[in-house]
Amino acid sequence: MIRCILFDMDGVLMDSERLHFQLWHRIFADCGVEVAFETYQHCIGSNLDALFIMVRQAYGVDLDAQREALQRRFFADKEAFLRRHGIPEIPKVRETVRQLHRWGYRMAVASSSTPAEIRQCVTYLGLEDCFEALCSGIHAPRPKPAPDVFLMAAEVLGVSPETCLVIEDSRNGTRAAQAAGMCCWGFENPSSGRQDLSAAQWRFQDFDQLRRRVQHLRETE
Asked: Average pLDDT, whole number, for the chain?
């Protein structure tokens, strides 16, 4: 029986995956590496280690020595974009999270992003009171597709994994949820590319579908 809902952030609470690619594409291009989205998309849901490993393996370029500087540029460029344009929103996310909160579900964010980025997203959406925990993968021993960040979120909430539902948009994220022993629903976000969501028990295209699915579960429990 589902009692807690764990949300990934990028590609689920905010439509940021294409933005992240555009920023990294420009940064890597300035380093002489033309990264294709078809290659980049396999890193979605994981962390920056996976990104730099991908560049090394797929393009034969080792940028580890420049990593800190490149990360600083990425965060500065992202912050500049968000100041100008705001967080790229996904339709009906606010309303859905609010409704789930009213229905009494305990919720947390479990993301590979930094704590500052997670707080920024949740604050911008005005959903601070809906989430009991904001869990960053940088505090987990292993990145997705390992289950660590989801298990950490369950531990923070004080619940068992089998009572948790994970909402994810990526192959790495859905496999992490599966490895954690949690139910997972996959959000088919076009911005996240052609993600293999086969590890998810159910898939949806918009958050109205998600809300109706949860309502149905409540009525049949």
From this structure: 95
For the cut 80, the answer to whether the pLDDT of residue 221 exceeds it is no
Whether this prediction's pTM lies above 0.85 is answered by yes
Q: Known catalytic residue: 15? A: no
Whole-number Å distance between alpha carbons of 221 and 97 = 20
How is residue 155 annotated by DSSP?
A: H
| pLDDT tens by residue, 173-213 | 999 999 999 999 999 999 999 999 999 999 999 999 999 99
The secondary structure element, H or E, covering residue 29 is: helix 17-30
Mention every residue, 6+ apart, whose C-beta is less than 8 A from residue 202.
185, 186, 213
Q: Could you say which of 10, 15, 148, 169 is catalytic?
A: 10
The H or E element spanning position 164 is strand 164-168
Q: Minimal CA–CA distance to 168: which of 155, 187, 149, 152?
A: 187
Active site residue 148: no
**From 8, 15, 148, 169, the catalytic residue:** 8
